[in-house]
Specification:
It contains seven helices and two strands. By secondary structure, the chain is mainly alpha-helical.
Length: about 140
C-alpha cells in the first residue's frame, strides 16, 4: 500500500475524521485529503506528527504493505511479519526480520503460550522466566 493508502487506512482504523487528524497534526483538512488521495505527500516533519498521532511509525506509514488488508500501518512496537507454513512435524520457520529484531539465534529456547480462541505466542525462555521470577518475588515467593 502507498503512503496515501496507509494514512487513510490508519486514520480510519483509529476512528478519526480527516478534520480531527488535521487538527492534531496542525494542518488543514484539505491537506490531509491531498495526502490521502496521493496528490501530495507529507514532508518529514508532518510525517512524524502523523505517525505520532496515529500511534505508528514513519516507516509504517511509508512502507507498510498489509497484503490486501485495510487495517492501516501497525501500531508502534507491533509487527506483522507475514505468513508462515507449519511443516508436517509442526515446524514453523520464524521470519528473518523477526529473528533479527528479537535477537533469536539457532539454539535459543522459546516458550510457546496459547489461549483458546486467541492463538499462540512465542517468548524467549529467559525473558519469560525473568517475568515469572519477578511475579513470584512480588508475591513473596521464590522460584525453585
Amino acid at each position: 500500500m502507498s503512503i496515501a493508502g496507509n494514512i487513510r487506512a490508519t486514520r480510519m482504523a483509529a476512528r478519526l475524521t480527516q478534520e480531527q487528524l488535521a487538527e492534531a497534526v496542525g494542518v488543514s483538512r484539505q491537506t490531509v485529503a491531498k495526502w490521502e488521495s496521493g496528490e501530495t505527500s507529507p514532508d518529514l516533519e508532518h510525517a512524524a506528527a502523523l505517525a505520532d498521532v496515529l500511534g505508528t511509525t514513519v516507516d509504517g506509514l511509508a512502507n507498510f504493505d498489509g497484503g490486501g488488508l485495510v487495517a492501516g500501518a501497525p501500531p508502534r512496537g507491533k509487527h506483522l511479519f507475514g505468513n508462515v507454513k507449519v511443516g508436517e512435524r509442526g515446524q514453523v520457520v520464524i521470519p528473518k526480520e523477526a529473528r533479527d529484531l528479537f535477537g533469536i539465534k539457532p539454539g535459543d529456547k522459546l516458550v510457546v503460550l496459547g489461549e483458546d480462541g486467541q492463538g499462540l505466542a512465542l517468548c524467549k525462555e529467559e525473558v519469560f522466566m525473568a517475568g515469572v521470577e519477578a511475579a513470584m518475588k512480588a508475591a513473596g515467593r521464590t522460584v525453585g
